[in-house]
Specification:
Shape: rod-shaped
Radius of gyration: 36 Å
Helix content: over 70%
Strand content: under 5%
Order of helices and strands: HH
Largest sheet: none
Distance between the termini: 92 Å
């Protein structure tokens, strides 16, 4: 083996080593970006959970407020001696074309109806 061939092999091995190092560097960069993405997703999930918790607190406050309003209305009507007003049907009747719906006893079926024979 001549000295030229020996140096050529050494140079080719160095270039190959450089190519493998470049591939490893890119893979590591992708891994780091993936980790950052997962961390961001976890942070967003925690933020979403905090927002949902606040929403539940706000809804709880709304329910409490509505219960207070209802109780105040019932107390006022009891003091005046009149019959309690039927608030829900009055609200429904103010919209044209609505009618009360019967209570459903079973969930709706998602099956297609049978075609007429």
């Amino acid at each position: 083996m001549s000295q030229f061939a020996y140096y050529l092999v050494i140079i080719l091995l160095g270039v190959g080593n450089l190519a493998l190092a470049l591939i490893a560097y890119r893979q590591r960069d992708k891994q780091i970006q993936g980790n950052q993405l997962r961390e961001t997703q976890v942070e967003l999930a925690e933020l979403r959970n905090q927002m949902a918790q606040k929403r539940m607190e706000y809804l709880g406050r709304q329910v409490d407020l509505l219960e207070e309003i209802r109780n105040a209305l019932v107390d006022d009507e009891a003091r005046s001696g009149s019959q309690p007003a039927d608030v829900i049907p009055a609200a429904r009747s103010s919209r044209p074309g609505t009618r009360p719906q019967p209570a459903r006893t079973s969930p709706r079926s998602h099956r297609q109806p049978h075609a007429p024979a």
